[in-house]
């Protein structure tokens, strides 16, 4: 039994143990993330796991397709032999996420407004990580009551 003047320093709060385990888990995740040969498109956007976890992402099908390079692009469908050619209908290269974001001639008009807006703040073309950050900031503003 402890007296009032005695202090017990041999107990660690549960919250501290949880925090340490979470940090270890994130470090292990980061090591695996750094060493993997898969997910290069997603890794291009989310270099750091801690930063990724801090983001509040409103994950839509189009956003997920963009950051994973999986989706209804001709390049993706061709990879699984669902269609014969990966070429974009604009005839300016294979239809990949990057092609649609930066190069597709058929999307030039749709691209003008975002580029005009982004160009006020950044030089174009903007890296995908910058587009993601702007999307996340805009989404969190739109969701605020």
Q: Span from first to last CA?
A: 53 Å
The rounded Rg comes to: 23 Å
Count of helical stretches: 8
Number of strands: 0
Strand content: under 5%
Low-confidence stretches: 140-145
Specify the structural class: mainly alpha
The string of secondary-structure elements, in order, is HHHHHHHH
Main sheet attributes: strand count, strand direction, barrel closure: none
Protein traits:
disordered C terminus; 0% strand; mainly alpha; 145 residues; single chain; 57% helix; elongated
Commentary on this structure:
With 145 residues, this protein is an all-alpha fold. The protein has a domain of 41 residues. 57% of the residues lie in helices and 0% in strands. It contains 8 helices and no strands. The chain is elongated, with a radius of gyration of 23 Å. The relative contact order is 0.09.
């Amino acid at each position: 039994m402890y007296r009032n003047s005695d202090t017990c320093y041999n107990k660690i709060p549960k919250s501290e143990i949880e925090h340490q385990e979470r940090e270890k888990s994130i470090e292990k995740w980061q090591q695996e993330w750094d060493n993997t040969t898969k997910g290069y498109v997603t890794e291009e956007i989310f270099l750091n796991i801690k930063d990724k976890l801090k983001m509040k992402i409103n994950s839509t099908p189009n956003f997920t397709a963009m950051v994973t390079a999986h989706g209804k692009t001709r390049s993706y469908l061709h990879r699984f032999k669902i269609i014969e050619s990966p070429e974009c209908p604009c005839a300016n290269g294979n239809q990949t996420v990057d092609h649609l974001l930066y190069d597709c001639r058929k999307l030039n008009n749709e691209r003008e407004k975002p580029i005009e807006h982004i160009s006020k703040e950044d030089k174009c073309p903007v890296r995908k990580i910058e587009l993601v950050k702007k999307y996340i900031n805009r989404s969190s503003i739109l969701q605020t009551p």
